């Protein structure tokens, strides 16, 4: 695995599709893309599937997703006829938590909520990423203040791999225009004030003027609203997607 500067130099001057093709060729069999079926991820899925780029696509099936999310998932499978691999929580971990604390323990404390996030998302993510060298994500620079110091290519110390954000410099309008121009199926909750769509019990619509992250875990202190999917451990930052 080359260092970030070497990879960045190799990608320099290439367009988004060619960057994905280059990485898929160089890291064949060890490159993976995580989708939660939001705007950004649907755009990247289209880039990968419509260009037949050999990148494995996966999702975290938490068991608490919105019906609209399942619809987009199924339509995406029908449209592209390509696999999207689902990673589920470990059965015993989930059973033990629910049996001990009930199905909605995450409302009771930050600790309980983080435990639920770990079981339903973090642990399955670790399994999905294991053995891979490149993790493709839908992170964009403008999504939160935490991301201002990030780059489209970065080292993930916690997962010991390189992350590449192919639409890092896209604005939300860029994403929406790309989706419209290419007639890409997307989650209609976005049209109802949901900029970020996660598990149904933990996501609500954002009101005009509210922060992008206000729709996640709205009952918690703003400073604690993360689950650890995208952690920049060296800088003490955690970015949620």
UniProtKB/TrEMBL annotation:
It catalyses: [thioredoxin]-disulfide + sulfite + AMP + 2 H(+) = adenosine 5'-phosphosulfate + [thioredoxin]-dithiol. Its cofactor is [4Fe-4S] cluster. Its main location: cytoplasm. Pathway: Sulfur metabolism; hydrogen sulfide biosynthesis; sulfite from sulfate. Keywords: Cytoplasm, Iron, Iron-sulfur, Metal-binding, Oxidoreductase. SUPFAM superfamilies: Adenine nucleotide alpha hydrolases-like. GO terms for molecular function: phosphoadenylyl-sulfate reductase (thioredoxin) activity. Its EC number is 1.8.4.10. The active site is at 227 (nucleophile). Binds 1 [4Fe-4S] cluster per subunit. The keyword Zinc-finger does not apply. It comes from the Bacteria. Belongs to the PAPS reductase family. CysH subfamily. Catalyzes the formation of sulfite from adenosine 5'-phosphosulfate (APS) using thioredoxin as an electron donor. This is Adenosine 5'-phosphosulfate reductase. The gene is cysH.
